[in-house]
Amino acid sequence: MPVTRQTTYQPDEFRADMKEAIQSELHQFVKSSDFKTIQSEAVNTLIEQSVQQATFPLIKRIEALETELTKVTTKANENEQYSRKFNLRIIGLVETDGEDCVQKVVQFVDEKLHLNIVKEEIDRAHRLGPKISTRSRPLIVKFKSYVTKAAICKRRKDLKGTQFYINEDLTKYNVNLFKYAREHNTHIKSVWTTDGKILVRNKDDKIIRSHHMDDFEKFNLV
């Protein structure tokens, strides 16, 4: 009976075969689409982490600067509005050549608002902007006393249904804020100004003062 010899691996041969098998598997894996996907995801993750680490302090700094800018802008606007606290704008007064604007205001207040004021209560009055042949320009008035200005403001409701309007002398920023509130009034019942402040009454009859555009979303007004 023939004797069958069994092949036995020596340790060095076994290690060599295992190394070759592993290298072959690795080579095939590296060439596979799975490896490319894993590699791409790993690279993207590293890039994203690096970008986040690098930009996080910058984002926080930008947010802080934006907050500070909002505060500065709001304060500057409030200061400018305060400087106009004695002013009113009158719309609808017919413009004439060589007119005495101060006297025209005194007469208007007497006839339309039934208030007696004298010329000495007015610091100055003049038309706004370049002259227009097709219509009368608004007239801006600066009173010497806040009391006089406030008394006239209280009577401006008497002008309802007429061609005349009396508005506060708002800053450009507040004009845009007021206009925005009137045009985007989904949750707003009414909007008005008092001493240059933009006041809004919401659907729940709560009165809210708007300082800037963000307030409309903050207080769920739009």
Concise synopsis of the structure shown:
Residues 171-215 form the FP protein C-terminal domain. This protein has helices at 11-31, 33-82, 101-112, 146-155, 172-183, 214-218, and strands spanning 87-91, 122-127, 139-143, 165-168, 188-194, 197-202, 207-210. It is α+β, with helices and mostly antiparallel strands and 222 residues long.
Task: Record the SSE blueprint.
Elements: H1 11-31, H2 33-82, E1 87-91, H3 101-112, E2 122-127, E3 139-143, H4 146-155, E4 165-168, H5 172-183, E5 188-194, E6 197-202, E7 207-210, H6 214-218
Antiparallel strand pairs: 1-3, 1-4, 2-3, 5-6, 6-7
Protein name: FP protein C-terminal domain-containing protein
Pfam families: Baculo_FP_2nd (PF25298)
Organism: Paramuricea clavata (Red gorgonian)
Description:
This is FP protein C-terminal domain-containing protein. The N and C termini lie far apart (101 Å). The strands form 2 sheets. The chain has a 4-stranded antiparallel β-sheet. The protein contains 6 helices and 7 strands, in the order ααβαββαβαβββα. It folds into 3 domains: 13-84; 85-169, L1 transposable element, RRM domain (Alpha-Beta Plaits); 170-221, no CATH class. The model has no long low-confidence stretch (mean pLDDT 87). It has helices at residues 11-31, 33-82, 101-112, 146-155, 172-183, 214-218, and strands at residues 87-91, 122-127, 139-143, 165-168, 188-194, 197-202, 207-210.
